[in-house]
Prior knowledge:
Chain A contains 6 helices and 6 strands. Chain A has helices at about 15-30, 40-50, 65-75, 90-100, 115-125, 135-140; strands spanning about 5-10, 30-40, 55-60, 80-85, 105-110, 130. In chain A, strands 2-1-3-4-5-6 form a 6-stranded parallel sheet, with helices on both faces. The longest helix of chain A is centred in the N-terminal third of the chain and has 13 residues, at about 15-30. By secondary structure, chain B is of the alpha+beta class. Chain B contains 29 helices and 23 strands. In chain B, the strands form 4 sheets. In chain B, strands 11, 12, 13, 14, 15, 16 and 17 form a 7-stranded mixed sheet that branches. Chain B has a 6-stranded parallel sheet with strand order 19-18-20-21-22-23, with helices on one face. In chain B, strands 2-1-5-4-3 form a 5-stranded antiparallel sheet. In chain B, helix 4 runs parallel beside helix 6. The two termini of chain B are about 125 Å apart. Residues about 1-15, about 655-660, about 735-740, about 775-780, about 820-825 and about 935-955 of chain B have low confidence and may be disordered. At the A-B interface, helix 1, helix 4, helix 5, strand 6 and helix 6 of A face helix 21, helix 22, strand 11, helix 23 and helix 27 of B.
Amino acid sequence: MTPVAGIGVLVVDDNDILGESMQRWMTGAQGVRCVGWTGNVDEAERMVAELSPDVVLLDVDIPGGDTFALLRSVTANHPGVKVVMLSGHLRQDYIERALDDGAAGYIVKDESPAKILDFVRRSAAGEIVLSSTARSWMNGPN
Amino acid sequence: MRKPDSESMDTARGGVLALRFQVAARVGAACAVVVILAVLTGWVADIPRLRDFTLSGVTMKFNAALAVGMAGFSLSLLIPSGAGRVRGAIGRALGGLVLLIGALTVFEHLTMLDLGIDQLLWRDPPGELGTVRPGRMGPPASTCLTLLGAGLLLLDALPRARVTPPQVLALLVCAIAALPTIGYIYGADQLFLVPRYTGIALYTAVTLLVLGASLLFARPGRGMVAVVSRDDAGGVLIRRLLPAALALPVAIGWMIREGRLAGYYDGAFQVAMLVLTLAGIFAVLIWLNGASLSNRDRAHRLVERRKDAIFESALDCIITMDGGGRVVEWNGAAEGTFGYSRAEAVGRLAAELIVPPGLRPAYIAGLRRCIESGGPAGFTGPVLGKRVQMPALHRDGREFPVELSIAATVMEAGEPLFTAYLRDITRSVAADADRSLLSSIVECSGDAIISKSLDGKITSWNAAAERIFGYTASAVLGRSIKVIIPEERLAEEEEILARVRRGERVGNFETVRRARDGRMVDVSLTVSPLRDAQSRVIGAAKTARDITERKRAEGELQAYRERLEQMVAERTTALAELNRRAREGERLAALGTLAAGLGHDLANLLLPIRARLDVLEAMPLPEEAREDIAATRSALGYVQRLSTGLRLMAADPEQLTSSGETTHLRAWWGDVETVLRTVLPKGVRLESEFPPALGVGMARHHLTQIVFNLVQNAGEAMAASGKGAVRIAAQAGASAASPGDAGATAVITVSDDGPGMTPEVLSRCFEPYYSTKGRAISTGMGLSLVRGLVERAGGHVRAESTPGVGTTFLITLPASLSPPGAGPDCTTRAVVSEAGLGDQPARTLALASAFLKSLGVVVEHEDSPDGADIWVAGAARTADVVTFLGERGGRCVVLCDERREEPAFGAGDCVVFIGPHPRAAELRKALVWAASRAAGAPGTRAPGVAVHHGLAGENS
């Protein structure tokens, strides 16, 4: 959308340290910019509408908030916005649910910031991205 | 209906008194005859004194003497009751002659005619005094003889009249004869000396008086005389006072007259004396007799009261009825038994009161027959004098059984009186029924019921006893109970008898008895004392139950129980084992959750730290600072691997209970190798060798946990030396020809060339919590967990170790179907067609692309060279698919379409149909299946068409 300014990323995570760190980190990264950070699910939807990010990095576990509802809402109301789940959990049910609800990817927080940046870029390009650790899920029980 | 002979009855009842009167009458008659014989002798022998006792000149005429003599003879013939016919006829003939003589003479007196009968037999001497004509008796004598003759003829006329004809005639005779007799005694000549009216000789007067009296008492049971012979107060009074009333005035009057004639006193005194004497004598007589009668009456009443008391207090009902069947007496017991009071019952028909309606006709007929049967010997009937049982009727309508006896009595005038004695035997009948029931119960009982005396003699023996012991009752009655007691148990019987003697009951005593054929019978005995009415123990009642069958059943039951207990013990052991495993499972789950949480938290911290490091690194920093950042990054790398390892080992909460999981060893190794390296000391190598397409039936994280433990143990053992290698290898088990067969196994070996274990340690290494060393980083799970996990998956684990050489763990697990061949030596290529066959949603294709990459499949662009292993495309028409496959030579096509028809694919083609908007899980499974089909060398790929969603992923 704004190629000059790079890919707009909204970070939704209740972990202050992570949120702030991501924001700070993206400030110096090439091709991406952090348009905002919030730990509140309700605020996140409003921010999506206001800030029109290209990619939303959405933590799965936000106490007091239904992140899957947010995912469905953003997907439905803002078809151009890619929502990539960024989670500390590696759970088959989370992955499947997120993909069924329209997520553009599922990234485990184990990934290095550089890898995450790559995922963000690829998802913005229309790819569906999965953390390498998600392979264990693909090879999991049928 | 013939009435009973009243005279005989009267005589019988009058008893001695009546007989005495008859005897007296006969004696009187006989005396008269004797006197007449004397008079006749006087005439014949001319002895004046015999003709005229007083010599007053008035003689007894021959005719009179003859007639009086015949009358006396006639009377003596007729008096005995039931006299013979000849005797009666003679008597009556003589009576007729007497009547004839008397009547003819009276006729002569009345008509003044001479019929010539006066001197027919004897000529009177002339000049006789007191005579109208020679030889003719006077009017008193002729009148008396007429009356006497008539009385003799009518002796048995009107026997039931209150005053019978002979008695009237006899009284007249007595009255007429008494006057001249008194005249002779008192010297009153007018009374016997006036020829035309009163002339009569003393002999004549006295004999007529005697005969009149005899005639009066000839039938003492009849008419007015009957009362004299009765044994009641009236009879007594008459017998005592009448003779005195007749005789005393005459005697006393005579004595007082003699005193006056002797000149002792004058006429006035004589009368006063007579009156006073008579009054005094009669007063005394009446007083004495009255007192006597009063006493007699009191005694009689006492007797009556006693009888009444007996009658009323009798426990049995006493009901008397007359000949018509009406109730005459009804005692207290009858009131209680039948519900009618005496006042209500008396006078009513017994048939209506107490005889049930159904029996009334028979009762009435029986009563009639009974009365008709009445005779001198009394009544006869089927129930008389016997005890019979029959139903009776209560006032309230209910019938009840009674015992009955009836006595018949003949009352006055021959009327019968029935006395019924009845007893309500309801209870006794019930008791009889009870006894009968008890008796039948005893006989029908399945248990032997035996009674015996205190010395052990058998006194009763029921049918069951016969059956159980084989002796008939007749064979054992009176014999000792010891016949059924085995020798060795005789003491037992003594003990039982001793207890019974003390009045104790012996219950459910199990023992053995011997049957007649020698067979031993298991019995359960209950022995109770038998007591008499005074509660003295007189014997024992013994119930013996044959428990042979029960004993046998008990034996079987015992065997069953033992088997059951054994089974329970086995199951308990198995359950304990299951419990142990379940606890381990819980522990694993807890550890898994902990590991997952730790991994999550670490990841949450690692990312910001790394981001900050990136930020720092981008700043202009001194070289030392950059080295510090690099070191930090290195340390973070370790933490990163730890986090990944933890997550790998973490149990997926969704998968904890799933079974049948398959882990492809080579793919799995690709994931965990990096992590496992981190647990080995520096300098220790990690080597691996996995054949392609070998999988095990075990969850990934469990396999990771197992191998992690073994590798960690090996690393710790080798930490001291800091060199050597840990080798992980897998191979198909020897027992299976090919993976996927039932019973196929895979063997994973984890070996090291460390110091090895001593035999002691080796033998105990799988014990829970057994440890030879402290551990800084320890899962705390140890080898026992390893064994638990392996066994849970249906495998087994063993260890081989040689000190100084090394240790090898061999894990045997079920092998599974070969999963996708994503090994490094076999690259599967796929093309996801974005344009090719249809308008498939881009998102589905993007998802397929991402999934295939995750599976290690190389995803290429459609423009890439032909020969891709997997084609993923949307299909507009089936024909296009066939064409597409023909052109591009692909072997496996994932068609994102809902159509279900099965087009004619080539023999080696694999086609998976899935919907246009598949769920992630479905798409994943479809692609995993496709990848497994497409893996491996050409020609080895399994053909098939998985129709529709491809969920099953199986050959069709």
